[in-house]
Design goal:
Elements (H helix, E strand, L loop, with lengths): L6 E2 L6 E2 L2 H12 L3 H47 L16 E11 L2 E2 L8 E2 L2 E2 L2 E2 L6 E6 L7 H8 L7 E2 L2 E2 L3 E7 L2 E2 L13 E8 L7 E3 L5 E3 L2
Parallel strand pairs: 3-13
Antiparallel strand pairs: 1-2, 3-4, 3-8, 5-6, 7-8, 9-10, 11-12, 11-13, 14-15
Bound molecules: zinc ion (ZN) (2 copies).
The site of one zinc ion has 3 residues, from strand 3.
Length: 224
């Protein structure tokens, strides 16, 4: 048989004696006929195109989802965590929230003045304010929202956190916060509730007080 009449496999360049032998080889080794292959390629392409479309759609949905989520988060955080030192409720009308907490500050057993009209000035009323010097904090807002004791100190423009009350800090004394008779360790992060009685107490190491005593070596013993 002349060379030209032999049947070559296009996949692996093997040569066969007859078309049947080539077909059998194709079936066995490549499991495809030419027609089938192009068809498969076409459907594979279509499949790829389809997956690409699905993927793009998925990405689109995810992106839109994130945008909506972000917008909602931004909106709710802007109203929930509005800077209390920038909020102005102007007056007592339209208050959806109006509760009170009582604050007492003791520095070395001396009660500190909490002046009237903290948070109140010409045309301005902050959601946290005082009307008198009784230590009553008025908590009023046009929508329901929690406020921390720390936010009251922000309005007052005074220091309060777990290490300082005013300029009295824990390097020179003990700082405790008592809410409704119980020691509280949240300090400035404590969310005030209606009727709370909050006592902030600072006792210097070098001052003899009810809760602290200093021994001869100058060391502090805390009685708790
Ligand atoms: Zn009030
Ligand atoms: Zn008020």
């Amino acid at each position: 048989m002349p060379e030209e009449q032999k049947f070559k496999c296009e996949q692996c360049i093997r040569v066969f004696g007859s078309q049947e032998a080539l077909d059998m080889h194709n079936k066995a080794k490549h499991s495809l006929t030419k027609d089938k292959k192009t068809e498969e390629n076409k459907s594979r392409k279509e499949h790829r195109l389809f997956t690409k479309k699905i993927r793009n759609l998925f990405i689109f949905i995810v992106v839109i989802g994130f945008l909506i989520f972000g917008a909602v988060a931004l909106f709710s955080s802007s109203s929930k965590n509005e800077d209390v030192t920038k909020m102005n409720i102007i007056g007592h009308q339209n208050a959806a929230l109006h509760i009170h907490s009582k604050l007492k500050i003791l520095i070395d057993d001396t009660e500190q003045l909490i002046p009237p009209n903290i948070g109140i000035s010409q045309g301005v009323m902050r959601p946290l304010h005082t009307h008198d010097a009784s230590g009553e904090i008025h908590i009023e807002a046009p929508y329901k929202r929690d406020f921390t004791i720390g936010e009251f100190f922000q309005v007052w423009e005074k220091n309060f956190n777990s290490s300082c009350i005013f300029n009295y800090c824990t390097d020179k004394g003990n700082l405790t916060m008592i809410v409704n008779g119980k020691e509280n360790f949240e300090f400035e992060n404590y969310f005030m509730k209606d009727g709370d009685i909050i006592i902030i107490e600072y006792n210097s190491f070098n001052v003899q007080s009810k809760t602290n005593s200093v021994n001869e070596n100058g060391k502090t013993n805390n009685k708790k």
